[in-house]
Model the fold of this input.
Amino acid sequence: MRVQSLGHVVLNVKSIERSEAFYSQILGIPVISRISHPAQMTFFSLGNHHDLAITAIGEDALSPDPTATGLAHIAFKIGDSLDQFCSAKTDLDGAGVPILYVADRAYTKSMHLLDPDGNEVELYIDTSDAWKTDLPPLTLMPTQ
Done:
């Protein structure tokens, strides 16, 4: 077996309304569906299946622990230019969303922030396509 692509990520959230507003209104990810049974869920799509879903688990739920195993962050490409990156930063500042840090990496420029439940979100632009060709060949380890 070989996985062909990432289908979607589902995040547990305290408030479906608050998180839906963050992902749809602040980040601009289109909502494509909602269900309320057996759980409250909202589905978002960036053109593939549904890329992100959130499911409400209640206001009393524990916040994510950044020192525990599990999801470290989710990343969304926000454009191809520094102008798009700066525009996104301006939009976040205007919405009162604090930026944890900005990173300049070998092939990307990104900013990291938290969603309303403390899940880390990375917003990035590719600054080079070299990552497509500069990576060493993938070597698969035999299973025993």
